[in-house]
Amino acid sequence: MEVKLLHAFVELAETGHYGRAAEKLHVTQSTLSKQIKALEDSVGGAVFERGRHGACLTSLGELLLKEARPFLRHGDELGAKMRAAMAGRTGHLTIAFGISTLATAPRLITRFRQAVPDCQITLNDMSSTTQHQRILAGRLDLGFCRAPENTDDLSFVPVLTEHLALVVPPGTTIPPQDRLFELNDLGFVKLSSPRGPGLDAQIGLWCGHNGFKPRIIQQADDILTVHSVVAAGLGAAMLPWHGAAALGGRTDRKKLDGPASHWPVGLCWRTRDSNPLLLHFVDHVTQATDQAREPAS
Hints:
Elements: H1 3-15, H2 18-25, H3 29-43, E1 48-51, E2 54-57, H4 59-86, E3 91-97, H5 104-115, E4 119-125, H6 128-136, E5 142-146, E6 154-168, E7 188-191, H7 197-210, E8 216-220, H8 223-231, E9 237-240, H9 241-246, E10 252-255, E11 262-270, H10 276-293
């Protein structure tokens, strides 16, 4: 049964007059009559009693009208939902973020939700390497992470510049960068390599460039634990600057300089992903980032 025929039927049933119904439907009376005849052929019986008083519903027509109205209403609602989805105004996204965007990512997501209230978002905390793998596998839509090495299948827009930071217990004297060996008496706490391969590689590069070898006395499986151990006075650590700042002021910290001391962190997604809601989110983050970089007038 064609939806167009049902629309014609409901309009005629509500007006009770072929001429007025045809005018509202922007068709001729002859066309409307043919549509009603086609509908009657489809349902197997007359839905209108024709006479001088216009179009009156038969018992079959009354039954059809009762069913047709919610059916068409549902169809209109479905159409509206599909149009909203194609415009990127509804749907579901899975988004991950790491420690460097612990403050930035939720803020950007909150603003997006305010602009697109009908969307649903699931958040996860995971390392950049894991994010890249899951995005490629289709198990994650977007990630706030380090720039991916695979630039053909993954797209990336920078959001902030992260810096390597020396983090020490409160009140600890921070030596000059060329004398960090003085902190080896205290010892260093590090995030385990499997849990933070990107950070581990970054620290390795920086230490190699600066001829420094930290004395590792403890490892942990998450940055929060590393930071807590340092805050308790049990060691120093090298952590992302923004990440350490987001964990609170229980430690002292200083940005490290030189080669391998900073890297871009941003939004990553599958290059070929055509999800309108995802593309809307990318545009939102890009515009918000560009506006944040604009100098104050």
